[in-house]
Design brief:
The chain is of the alpha+beta class. The chain is built from six helices and five strands, in the order ααββααβαβαβ. It has two domains: about 90 residues; about 120 residues, 60s Ribosomal Protein L30, Chain: A, CATH 3.30.1330. Strands 1-2-5-3-4 form a five-stranded mixed β-sheet. α2 packs across α4 and α4 packs across α5.
Length: about 230
């Protein structure tokens, strides 16, 4: 079923053709009647010119109406497109919040990015495949364009504590740099702080592979601006 704002232009074309044929038929009848009761004050050429003008007028009127309806259809389609874009952004934001396990209070918002998603083992270079995650982080950050952001890197307990601390700091800085580059100037560098806390705040045991994967993470916190 077509939308209510859809206009079948082919139907208008057929209607235009039908009206023109009707005008021609009417004109023939008019000329035949005049032949039976000639008006000496009006020449045959003048009568034909009048009929031609009447037909052209009807054609132009129909063309105008067709153009008006096409413009309305285009405007309605643009409105529908804008509405769909808004709905898509809402759904994408909701998905980003789920995937990043967002936790929110009145004062702050926290989200989590697993280190194994962003980095290779013992590396602080952001993976090329992490683009979709950065896109999701950007969506959430966009909700609070004036909030202050802290990017914190964490490590598991593999290796010595000092090395893990340095690695977590470098990972925090790498995520900060990637977010600023991706934001294309919409996020000011003065709003973003990067830090690393090494292995000091584990969220799981370091005795298992699964636990260590959870401890290798990056947390992003937004402090919401105070309402005045």
């Amino acid at each position: 079923m077509k939308n209510s704002y859809y206009v079948d232009t082919s139907m208008l074309d057929r209607l235009t053709h039908a009206v023109v044929l009707a005008c021609i038929a009417s004109s023939i009848s008019y000329l035949s009647a005049e032949t039976l009761a000639p008006d000496p004050s009006v020449t045959a050429e003048a009568k034909q010119e009048i009929v031609a003008q009447e037909i052209e007028l009807k054609e132009k009127q129909l063309e105008f109406e067709k153009a008006r309806l096409e413009v309305k259809q285009s405007a309605d389609l643009e409105l529908k497109k804008s509405q769909l874009e808004i709905e898509i952004k809402k759904l994408e934001l909701a998905k980003a919040r789920r995937d990043l396990m967002v936790q929110e209070t009145n004062e702050r918002l926290e989200m989590l990015v697993q280190g194994d998603v962003m980095f290779d083992v013992n590396s602080f270079e952001v993976r090329a495949g992490a683009l979709s995650v950065l896109n999701q982080v950007g969506l959430v950050l966009g909700e609070y364009p004036n909030g202050n952001i802290v990017v914190t890197g964490f490590a598991d307990a593999t290796g010595d504590a000092q090395s893990n601390l340095q690695l977590s700091r470098k990972r925090g800085e790498a995520v900060k740099t990637a977010l600023l580059e991706k934001s294309a100037g919409t996020i000011s560098s003065e709003r973003v702080i990067a830090q690393g806390l090494g292995e000091t705040q584990p969220v799981a045991t370091n005795e298992s592979t699964a636990g260590r994967e959870l401890n290798r993470r990056v947390e992003i916190t937004i402090t919401k601006p105070l309402l005045r």
